[in-house]
Amino acid sequence: MSGGSAGNGSGEGGGPPRSTAEEPWPVRVVSQKVGAWIARLGWVWVDGQVAQISRRPGASTVFLTLRDPSADLSLTVTTNRDVLDAGAPELREGARVVLHAKPEFYAARGTLSLRADEIRQVGLGELLARLEKLKKLLAAEGLFDRARKRRLPFLPGRIGLITGRASAAERDVLTNARRRWPAVDFRTVNVAVQGPGAVPQIVDALKVLDTDPSVDVIVIARGGGSIEDLLPFSDEALCRAVFACRTPVVSAIGHETDAPLLDYVADVRASTPTDAAKRVVPDLAEEVRLIRQARHRLERAVRNLVDRESHRLDLLRSRPVLARPQVMVDQRAADLAALRARTGRCLDHRLGTAENDLRHTLARLRALSPAATLDRGYAIVQRADGHVVRAAAEVAPGDPLRVRLAAGELAATVDG
Length: 416
Known about the structure:
- It is a single chain.
- This protein is an alpha/beta fold.
- It has helices at residues 3-8, 27-39, 81-87, 124-140, 168-180, 198-210, 236-244, 261-265, 273-280, 284-318, 320-323, 325-368, 370-375; strands spanning 44-55, 61-67, 74-80, 96-106, 111-121, 159-163, 186-190, 217-222, 249-253, 268-269, 380-383, 400-404, 409-413.
- It folds into 4 domains: 27-121, CATH 2.40.50.140; 129-281, Rossmann fold (3-Layer(aba) Sandwich), CATH 3.40.50; 286-318; 370-414, no CATH class.
- Helices cover 43% and strands 20% of the residues.
- Strands 1-2-3-5-4 form a 5-stranded mixed barrel. A 5-stranded parallel beta sheet has the order 7-6-8-9-10, sandwiched between helices.
- Helix 8 (261-265) links the parallel strand 9 (249-253) and strand 10 (268-269).
- The longest helix is centred in the last third of the chain and has 44 residues, at 325-368.
- This is Exodeoxyribonuclease 7 large subunit.
- GO terms for molecular function: exodeoxyribonuclease VII activity; nucleic acid binding.
- It is found in: Cytoplasm.
- Pfam families: Exonuc_VII_L, tRNA_anti_2.
């Protein structure tokens, strides 16, 4: 069957017509078409991790299960024993390989597999080169940026722990954390920490703990191992999953000298699982000691303040104004009496001066007053209209006059 006839299904060249509900394709036709489409992919180079090897004694065919380290996906690979012995004679489960293969669809079983004609085991040097290239890529994208790293909470309410089941790393984290803070609460998710299934399980555990609102910090812990054993913790998918976490993540992988890429992406890198326990919770005994020291410093500060203020009060009390407060009252009373006396003298002087001035003015007024002239025997002659007569020509015979004396008045008439 050609690729063209499989693709259009138009019935040209003797192929079956397009499938409909009334004229469906038989299973064999569907299988043939699927096989034809897969065959069009041709030969490809595939990178993966060997999850299983099956060598049957006396058989020339070897079966491999090739797994993607970053996803829960696998494919079956068939190859000749000679091909395997030539390219990877010491191949073991968990090893990384690059193989040249062609996808094939087995219609009888409805399965897809790869037929390899060349297999290359990825050596340590090549693995390190790949990790270095990935490290540069992630660094360029900002996954290692210190500015985005979050501080751990001082005392987390609950700690999420991702580690191997019943592992030494799990025991170290739990034991040391509870030794430092007995009331610490953990939510532990056990996963595979090496092998083909490690990365998907760790990523799933991260999602579970990151969506748990009670978890304040997540610790990913594993004991030491070879570079190949620690490869899952340098996986790109895991690094991106940690970068996307909203919860702070602590990486505690291997020993001090081990540095998987997870260490660079995590918010805090712990040299060992024990070091991670020391970083995520405070030491109760140390905090109690610090509190006692702070209390002692506070007590000393309060005592010094009280002593200083007491001494200041003593100095204030020793001043005369406070030692004999009546002195101040007596002094003010004397000042007030002196001011009153001074005010009285000043007032008396001003009143006396005013009295003399008034007496002199009165004397001058009396000297200038017409009454004083009348007292000396003079009189004032006025006409009936009150006009003072100063000359004889101002009156006529018979005019009535009024004569004012010092004491009393006289009525007169002009005669002649």
